[in-house]
Amino acid sequence: MSRETEKLTPMETVLATLDLETIEMNLFRGNSPQVGWQRVFGGQVIGQALMAAQRTVDGDRFAHSLHAYFMLPGDPSVPILYQVDRLRDGSSFNTRRVLAVQHGKAIFALTASFQLDEPGFDHQGDMPDVPMPEELMDEEQVKQRYLAHAPENVRRYWERKRAIEIRPVSIESYFSRSQPSQRQNIWIRLTGPVPDDRLYQNAVLAYLSDMTLLDVALNAHGTSVLDPNVQVASLDHAMWFHRPFKLDDWLLYSQESPSASGARGFTRGSLFTRSGVLIASVAQEGLIRKKAND
């Protein structure tokens, strides 16, 4: 990032990261924030690839699904090139395929489908009955209560200024992992405004959809992504956008891990508005492997 972007808030940095540079028709370049990460955050690549695809589709059609594979860790020190293939432009649907490239190698691939808004049958599952975010501890209270004796990597994670605030419904199990569970509910909220533009709204939702998902697969075994003895990496990611939404309030991310096997954990997530509207569904499989020297 440039010196100018270093002065941005965390949320402004996310938006700047998603605002790709157009190099040529169907070819875009994205950068990564220079925050000391060893590899690019998976949600960033999902969001950037979706933004690249969206910019090749007419403005009256919006993403309803995406399916993606992570192939190599992204290098945050160099730009990522996004090559878009226009696979189909139909009367109602458009299909795009995006390849993310660094150092001459494909690191990520995404296919997305777009549709005109149209009416039709409508139903959804119920949002879990959980406390509202105002009934839970905020991040400052969490820091005061839990971080004094937490491991250094946990303190660094929670003390870092982030674009997305999270409030786990069960904060004790989130930190202690003393009660393994295959389910978790987390309230999430952006720490700054997002343009009233569905391209940005969808890209930001895709960005945050990669957060905390593999936590629940590991929590089922009493560990977490912060455990230095566990190797964790996203392998694939799928997402369905059900209804238009605004990112100006808390969202409930309800997650479950129905299976783990073969050093892979599978998770599903549902994103609800505060009022209980299901706006998106997510599925992901990730590598969850004990390190060889453990």
UniProtKB/TrEMBL annotation:
<feature type="domain" description="Acyl-CoA thioesterase 2 C-terminal">
    <location>
        <begin position="161"/>
        <end position="287"/>
    </location>
</feature>
<comment type="subunit">
    <text>Homotetramer.</text>
</comment>
<feature type="domain" description="Acyl-CoA thioesterase-like N-terminal HotDog">
    <location>
        <begin position="36"/>
        <end position="115"/>
    </location>
</feature>
<dbReference type="InterPro" id="IPR042171">
    <property type="entry name" value="Acyl-CoA_hotdog"/>
</dbReference>
<dbReference type="InterPro" id="IPR003703">
    <property type="entry name" value="Acyl_CoA_thio"/>
</dbReference>
<protein>
    <recommendedName>
        <fullName>Acyl-CoA thioesterase 2</fullName>
        <ecNumber>3.1.2.20</ecNumber>
    </recommendedName>
</protein>
<dbReference type="InterPro" id="IPR025652">
    <property type="entry name" value="TesB_C"/>
</dbReference>
<dbReference type="InterPro" id="IPR049449">
    <property type="entry name" value="TesB_ACOT8-like_N"/>
</dbReference>
<comment type="similarity">
    <text>Belongs to the C/M/P thioester hydrolase family.</text>
</comment>
<dbReference type="GO" id="GO:0047617">
    <property type="term" value="F:fatty acyl-CoA hydrolase activity"/>
</dbReference>
<keyword id="KW-0378">Hydrolase</keyword>
<dbReference type="InterPro" id="IPR029069">
    <property type="entry name" value="HotDog_dom_sf"/>
</dbReference>
<keyword id="KW-0443">Lipid metabolism</keyword>
<dbReference type="Pfam" id="PF02551">
    <property type="entry name" value="Acyl_CoA_thio"/>
</dbReference>
<dbReference type="GO" id="GO:0009062">
    <property type="term" value="P:fatty acid catabolic process"/>
</dbReference>
<dbReference type="GO" id="GO:0006637">
    <property type="term" value="P:acyl-CoA metabolic process"/>
</dbReference>
<dbReference type="Pfam" id="PF13622">
    <property type="entry name" value="4HBT_3"/>
</dbReference>
